[in-house]
Amino acid sequence: AIVLGNGMVRPLMKLMRFQTQIREILDGVKRMQPVLSMREGRAKTRQTLTSSAVQLSGISVSYGNRRVLSEVSFAIPAGRVTALVGPSGAGKSTIASLLGGLVEPDQGRILVGDCPLADIDNVQRTATIAVVAQDAFLFRGTLLSNLKLGRPDAGEDQIRQALRVAQAEAFVDALPKGWHTHVGERGLTLSGGERQRLAVARALLANTPVLVLDESTAFADSRTEKYFYEALHRTYPALTVLTIAHRLYSVKDATNIVVLDHGSVVASGDHASLMQTCTLYRQMWQAQAPQQSGSVNQTRPAVLPG
Ligand code: ATP
């Protein structure tokens, strides 16, 4: 048996901690590898964006030889909320992945202003479009370090503002150490909804002109979800938002609702016109009606931007 002197224990423990950190960094790099290699080989440049409006034109995407998006075209106007709705498996999250640079189209193009998304480098894309994925991921560290990832110089007021809009302020303040609480390994375990709220706050804090929310407001009920959109517009009026929404009631007031089915856009418009012209939208609305009726009457009128 090897007996360690007192003086050796501490450096050894330090070494072991260091090893764990290296393993975590390598895991992170491994996760990024497909994205990085996908983007290699094509010269990417910095571009000046003329507008935060996003236009998808003739986008097709396949996973292996299975096509999941077919010639999808629609506009996401600047400074407004556009809702993307459709049955499960329609391809909604694939559109979020495209905008996040995790998936590349087989054909078609995405413009931000008049700049093709494919031509801008990863750093500029990340500074232009923030995507909050369904499974919000938090890194080991404090809540604060997680929040400040996209904006290390964020001030306390900006952090509070983002937390408030994301409806995370109350639960963070209720923690004994507030936003200095550790999360992850041996730290606080957060519920899925709490993680989602923090991920939304982190994306807001990153201050990108475009925000994509993939079922990111599922933490809220219909009523608080509406308050979220009101607060979002009031606090960040210039933000261009694409929200993938399961609950149609929460995006009912958007003037731009895009209906996706089996990888194709089947209709777009506002709620009233879609109820008249789109059978699928009407069926989805009717299927959700029993869940919505409970909160409709209690909800104060909310106006969605756009
Ligand atoms: P949901 O509302 O259930 O989240 P969705 O409309 O967001 O569904 P996507 O997640 O975009 O749909 O999936 C579209 C289709 O592509 C589905 O049939 C799905 O099984 C398939 N798919 C998604 N990601 C992958 C992947 N990485 N590899 C292979 N197939 C995938």
UniProtKB/TrEMBL annotation:
Keyword annotations: ATP-binding, Cell membrane, Lipid transport, Membrane, Nucleotide-binding, Translocase, Transmembrane, Transmembrane helix, Transport
Chain intervals for the UniProt region annotation (Disordered): 291-306
Domain (ABC transporter): residue spans on this chain: 54-287
Membrane topology category: Multi-pass membrane protein
Keyword Transmembrane helix: yes
Entry's localization field: Cell membrane
Gene Ontology terms describing biological process: lipid transport
Gene Ontology MF: a single term: ATP hydrolysis activity
Stretches with biased composition (Polar residues): 291-300
Listed GO CC annotations: plasma membrane
Main location: membrane
Domain of life: Bacteria
Protein name, as recorded: ABC transporter
Organism: Advenella kashmirensis W13003
Segment of the intact protein contained: 283 to 588 of 593
